[in-house]
Fold this protein.
Amino acid sequence: MDRQGKLFIAWIDKRDQVQAKAAGEPYRGAAIYFAVSDDDGASFRGDFKLAEHSCECCRIALLARSDTGVTALWRHVFAPNIRDHAIADLYADGSASEIRRASFDDWAIDACPHHGPSLARDSDGTLHAVWFHLGKHEPGVTYGRLLDGKVEAQRRLGGDGAAHADIAVDGQRLLLVWKEFDGQRTWLRAQRSDDAGAHWRDLTLADTGDMSDQPRALVHDGRFHVFWNTRERPWQVVAVP
């Protein structure tokens, strides 16, 4: 939902791929469409196309802009088959800004990794993101600050078993969270910064020896929490110290 109370939904859609294949034409990946509600989801208008050639399965990150509309971050398929991320602003009238490249890892893969990004904005307006790649620059779960045409302070999070990161921001405070498998147990790891990412401290929040879902970082009453659904402890909410 944006600052004006408009509810946005965005999804991956293969209708253009199907049409292209029926016509015997090549089509990379899928597409991104979106719709907008003015009445808290009772009805939606539009079937607006945002982008051609998105990755087929990775989740889309949506973030309210400071004025109106939302910012979308998704894994795109840049020609010929580079699966880096793209970013654009969506507006309630169905228009969108130009699509800009957001990550520059040059990951060439003809498949979907099922690792979507997460996006947050601090009180200075800086965009912070986490994503996954196996490209040229420090492959794995990754954090960085998104600037026009480049990524600042990009670095890897965790080890080879790290996966499915999420991010939350409260003012100048940031929380990065992910799960990490060590061969026997899955650990809920985090890094927290109280100065917009200038300094970080490592945290281990929980662990499980059974199946687990993707963690989600939350802010409630000025405190960070992590929602992590595991078979051992379903629907748990972990307070971050």
Helices lie at 15-22. The longest strand covers residues 45-54. The chain has a mean pLDDT of 96.
